Amino acid sequence: xxxxxxxxxxxxxxxxxxxxxxxxxxxxxxxxxxxxxxxxxxxxxxxxxxxxxxxxxxxxxxxxxxxxxxxxxxxxxxxxxxxxxxxxxxxxxxxxxxxxxxxxxxxxxxxxxxxxxxxxxxxxxxxxxxxxxxxxxxxxxxxxxxxxxxxxxxxxxxxxxxxxxxxxxxxxxxxxxxxxxxxxxxxxxxxxxxxxxxxxxxxxxxxxxxxxxxxxxxxxxxxxxxxxxxxxxxxxxxxxxxxxxxxxxxxxxxxxxxxxxxxxxxxxxxxxxxxxxxxxxxxxxxxxxxxxxxxxxxxxxxxxxxxxxxxxxxxxxxxxxxxxxxxxxxxxxxxxxxxxxxxxxxxxxxxxxxxxxxxxxxxxxxxxxxxxxxxxxxxxxxxxxxxxxxxxxxxxxxxxxxxxxxxxxxxxxxxxxxxxxxxxxxxxxxx
Length: 431
Description:
The protein is mainly α.
């Protein structure tokens, strides 16, 4: 896996992202604590998570359109610089009357991130070879697991000793470092086909026409998902799984308290076990993924995860639950890395941004649906029943992957580039 770091461009991308993600995880823990310290309100604290979630639904697919239209590396540099600047506004929010500023910063940062994420997912296949793609995605997963383990505890310590100023300074600086790493990347990007000139090319495009063309390009990306069996299976299966994930996220605290009869420390151990499983799985992801056909690996992962969740819920023995949660963390990494690589290989470069933008939007929507189900159903069905349903949903999410062709991941050919994209007056900036 680490051999892909010999690729200078990917090493720069990965190093910058590792630092940036660590900064994000510091903020994920510190900002809700800061809001609670300011307001002493759980409701006000929850508003932060709403501000983070709304842009994922509204802008995720749109960000993918621009990732296919503009130089992806420049998009990522610009978004990192913007996020670094916007975060500094949090230094002004030092009283409850300025709570709106914290929400505005959170909303803006999340909105800008929706342009970064599809650009990153689409850029990776441009800077690594097809043979390196599994290793690159595995290393990406490794960095996420490492920062997830280290970030919250480090963020808590920094916030306790130095306050929110230290967190803002580190997170903002991490975006600057990531932007610098991206600036140092040198490669000859694949030339994506230019859009056909519209019939009214001589006339001045109106804002309505521009938005209409944006919509048509977004629909083009969704059409690729609809017509490609691999993408259709991933969107369906992962979407179903995220409903179960949403239910689990909301009820995990209730499960710890009411079924395990534990406390916050107990929940911390459960999350750490899952994180450690994910970390160890990331190290061997390349070896595991290359030895199994993608559909079998994903189907087995989700099927076993669903079964283990049901066992955990109905056999509340803490030591056993920790082991099973670690295995679940490992299986989830293998399934997600496999799905990411499949999507990159099954999509031509001209559509990757839109496909990944739509994918992020779908997953965010399905998580919210799962959260809504758990919020409404907990009082009617109880925690244990809903969690059993969550486990069953995880298992059922394996079924759509039956339709993925039986082939090795390394043998899946990348589709040929289309001869021309849908006509659009949106300028295509030189790569």
